[in-house]
Design brief:
about 190 residues, mainly beta, twelve-stranded antiparallel beta sheet, 2 helices, 12 strands, about 40% strand, globular
């Protein structure tokens, strides 16, 4: 009869054999990843990359948009980099100093770095109240972002405290992601 100690050792080895592949496959905030916007018809449009670099308890990030994918629009006396489709989606870079860091449980500054505004192709001005904020969460495959509505006029003036992101949940409104041409964002 097998000893209790030997059975426990085999049980522990079996658990480790299962757990190690799972932990090795977990998605990490490290290295360079591709940013995609997803259209209503299922297209994944790569728009650039984000590079993550661990720094102590947080992870620094740098975004590099692929400007060849964007078209220049001059709206409301300002140049925007935009994507054209059933609607026009323009990237709105966060204009103030910020830490540009994240943690697995706090992606707010990455969300603020990927703000957009939307407009119809026939409109000639930027309506900053038509802002899109992608609320992000980490999954086993990467980061998934769901569009929420924000008023981008809120970031027109510098915040009193540049370490606090200006779009907490109370400043965002849930929308049906299918109501926007590019209602989802992923980072892989």
């Amino acid at each position: 009869m097998e000893s209790l100690l030997l059975r426990k050792a085999r049980w522990a080895a079996a658990l480790c054999a299962v757990a190690l592949p799972l932990s090795a496959s977990a998605w990490e905030l490290a290295g360079t990843k591709t940013i995609f916007l997803h259209s209503q018809d299922g297209q994944a449009i790569p728009i650039g990359s984000v590079t993550f670099r661990p720094e102590g308890g947080r992870t620094a990030f740098v975004i590099a948009l692929d400007h060849a994918r964007f078209k220049d629009f001059f709206l409301s006396m300002k140049e925007f980099k935009c994507l054209e489709g059933p609607e026009v989606m323009c990237h709105v870079p966060y204009p103030h100093r910020n830490p540009a860091t994240v943690t697995a449980g706090d992606l707010a500054w990455l969300e603020h770095a990927l703000l957009f505004l939307h407009k119809s192709p026939g409109e000639f001005s930027a309506k900053l109240w038509n802002g899109l904020y992608y609320r992000m969460e980490i999954s086993g495959e990467g980061i998934n972002g769901t569009a929420q509505a924000v008023d981008l006029n809120l970031i027109g003036a510098p915040p009193a405290d540049s370490t606090i992101p200006p779009y907490p949940p109370a400043e965002r409104s849930d929308i049906d992601p299918a109501s926007r041409w590019l209602g989802r964002l992923t980072i892989r």
